[in-house]
UniProtKB/TrEMBL annotation:
The lineage of its organism: Bacteria, Bacillati, Actinomycetota, Actinomycetes, Nakamurellales. Zn(2+) 2 binds at D153, H180, H233. This is Dihydroorotase. It holds the Pfam family DHOase. Substrate binds at H61, L62, R63, N93, N279, H310, P324, G325. GO terms for biological process: 'de novo' UMP biosynthetic process; purine nucleobase catabolic process. Zn(2+) 1 binds at H59, H61, D153, D306.
Length: 435
């Protein structure tokens, strides 16, 4: 089985043909068309398209097991493939919680059966994500799912002793703790960012310091025990400063930002439309600027979607009772193009770094986020950098509809996604494992 992708521009640079044979990039550039194996290859015309490594999402909520009305591994995988992803890390806030080898293996199997993206389960740090007792991290690490990333996402590991133990424990197998940084006491009853807008709307605020204080504490704990920390969804300018200072000091810390925090502000809460309710909350214009700069300068390592599907009965209700979270997989690349590429803050190499290479490295993957070069697995996304499209949640492969970008015109469109040489999405249609 071979595919010859002609005329596309790897990393948006010089156009170069790419020959894929048996799931592996066999040749790039002049060698590709000249290769005898190109003779019976399927030819894909990619003139005018940018070719990037398949994207890797370190923070996806697939909702299975337990909330299959909001998303399943199959529907979330389809959304991922359509968004240009070839691998996603599935957060463990499912029902039951992914806190045992059994549950993470179940998620792994569901991902394999769907076959549209590699699904890597994240294991919970504490039993039931209750923050009381460490889960069996080693059992998940040595399971078939080979879990390397652990998180109580949705909740913060707020107990400093538990956090210390978790950081110590994962050292044995090269794991990382991905912290949802939210000091629970400082955010009790919080509904949105604490600031001018929350005061005007009369909603309880979620102060920036509730995030920043946890990040500062965890960086110090990480230094103390000589471990590795990843900070989920940075949302404030102060958090960027804390991470920058820690990195300067040599702390082994990485950080992510979501597409929605790169584009939207707390002003969106004005109409009390719960589609804009999320944790951490949308912040201010100054925070958005600092997050973009932080991503451009490498203080923030990656973009992660925090794709958080919610069924309509949980989302289309009054603001106070609505579940926090937003869809992200099918809009992430376009939002990054709008906020980082069109603004000159990142080139396509930079996009490949923050959406494929670095997330794969942080998650411990050696077969994803690889360079577009001979001998590498053919995980690729072809995108049209000139196209634009209007977001319609109703058209998404996701089972839920809670996109905060509804009706927006966004730049850049995914034309095709390849997982180990097999097309998983093409012209807006996700393709099952059999095709
Ligand atoms: N981001 C959210 O607002 N919600 C996430 C949990 C999380 O990522 O914190 C969810 O699971 O719905
Ligand atoms: Zn979270």
């Amino acid at each position: 089985m071979s595919v010859l992708i002609t005329g596309g521009a790897p990393y948006g640079e010089q156009p170069a043909d790419i020959l894929v044979v048996d799931g592996v990039i066999a040749a790039v550039g002049a060698d590709a068309a000249a290769d005898p194996r190109a003779r019976d290859a399927e030819v894909v015309d990619a003139a005018g398209l940018v070719v990037l490594p398949g994207l890797v999402d370190l923070h996806t909520h697939l909702r299975e097991p337990g909330r299959e009305d909001a998303e399943t591994v199959a529907t979330g995988s389809a959304a991922a493939a359509l968004g240009g992803y070839t691998a996603v890390f599935a957060m463990p806030n499912t029902d039951p919680t992914a806190d045992t080898a059994g549950v993470v293996e179940q998620v792994l199997r569901l991902g394999e059966q769907t076959g549209l993206v590699d699904v890597h389960p994240i294991g919970a740090v504490t039993v039931g994500r209750k923050g009381q007792k460490l889960a069996e991290l080693a059992a998940m690490a040595t399971s078939a799912a080979r879990v390397r990333v652990f998180s109580d996402d949705g909740d913060c590991v707020s107990d400093p002793l538990l956090m210390r133990r978790a950081l110590e424990y994962v050292k044995a197998f090269g794991g990382v703790i991905a912290q949802h940084a939210q000091e629970p006491r400082l955010t009790q009853g919080a509904q949105m960012h604490e600031g001018e807008v929350s005061a005007r709307l009369g909603l309880t605020g979620w102060p920036a310091v509730a995030e920043e204080a946890i990040i500062a504490r965890d960086c110090l704990l990480t230094d103390h025990v000589g471990s590795r920390l990843h900070v989920c969804h940075l949302s404030t300018a102060g958090s960027v400063e804390v991470v920058a200072a820690a990195k300067k000091r040599g702390t082994n810390v990485t950080a992510e930002v979501t597409p929605h925090h790169l584009l939207l502000t707390d002003e969106r809460a004005q109409g009390y439309d719960p589609v804009f309710k999320v944790n951490p909350p949308l912040r201010t214009e100054a925070d958005v600027r600092a997050l973009r700069t932080g991503l451009a300068t490498g203080v923030i390592d990656i973009v992660a979607t925090d794709h958080a599907p919610h069924a309509s009965q949980d989302k289309e209700t009054e603001w106070d009772n609505a579940s926090p979270g937003m869809l992200g997989l099918q809009t992430a690349l376009s939002v990054v193009i709008a906020t980082m590429v069109r603004t000159g803050l990142l080139d396509w190499r930079g996009v490949a770094r923050v959406m494929a290479e670095a997330p794969a490295r942080i998650g411990g993957l050696t077969d994803q986020g690889r360079p577009i070069a001979a001998g590498e697995p053919a995980n690729l996304v072809l995108l049209d950098p000139q196209a634009s499209w209007t977001v319609r949640g109703a058209d998404f492969a996701s089972l839920s509809r809670n996109t905060p970008f509804e009706g927006m015109e966004l730049p850049g469109r995914v034309v095709a996604t390849y997982l180990r040489g097999r097309r998983t999405a093409s012209a807006g249609v996700a393709l099952g494992a059999e095709s």
